[in-house]
Specification:
Layout (H helix, E strand, L loop, with lengths): L1 H13 L10 H17 L4 H7 L4 H17 L1 H20 L10 H52 L1 H5 L7
Length: 169
């Protein structure tokens, strides 16, 4: 799994266990890089990323937003992130089978767009079918009324009804 590879990569780089329950800065930064690498290089949701570290999606989202700010001002953290990103890309090139589930962000959005498009088409088709069924019911009601009136008229003016004046087609 990609999360195990990224976790090992980050832990080896920082020489610490990132799932330790501590608030020391080096652990927080390592976890933040781990979350960001997973978010940028996999299809995992925030909840799924959080579950890998026994955290919730809100923690992951907050940390990812914070690391974006941190790397702007902390040169060392930016260098660490870039180094780990390049190592991960290198590992992905060396062993692409292990990273089948990984995808770039554009591909992620493309897949999500296709899912939404399919749902949209399904809803539209369903509503069109429902509208057609309602129209068919109305047509059947009108046809029944027409046939009833035609049969009543046939009693009084049979020649006129048989002359195809009242045919529908």
């Amino acid at each position: 799994m990609i999360h195990q590879t990224i976790k090992k990569l980050v832990e080896d780089y920082y020489t610490l266990k990132i799932d330790s329950k501590t608030r020391k800065r080096e652990y927080i930064e390592a976890r933040a890089i781990y979350y960001k690498l997973l978010r940028d290089n996999s299809r995992m949701s925030l909840s799924a990323i959080g579950k890998t570290m026994n955290k919730d999606h809100a923690t992951v989202l907050y940390t990812i937003n914070k690391i974006d700010d941190w790397v702007q001002y902390d040169k060392q953290l930016r260098q660490d992130y870039e180094t780990l990103t390049s190592r991960l890309k290198h590992a992905m090139m060396l062993n692409p089978e292990q990273f089948k589930e990984s995808i770039n962000i554009e591909g992620f959005y493309e897949i999500e767009y296709k899912k939404l498009e399919e749902k949209h088409n399904h809803v539209v088709n369903k509503s069109v079918a429902k509208a057609l069924a309602e129209e068919a019911k109305k047509y059947d009601i009108l046809l029944n009324k027409y046939n009833f009136l035609k049969s009543r008229l046939e009693k009084y003016e049979p020649k006129r009804v048989n002359s195809t004046e009242f045919d529908l087609v």
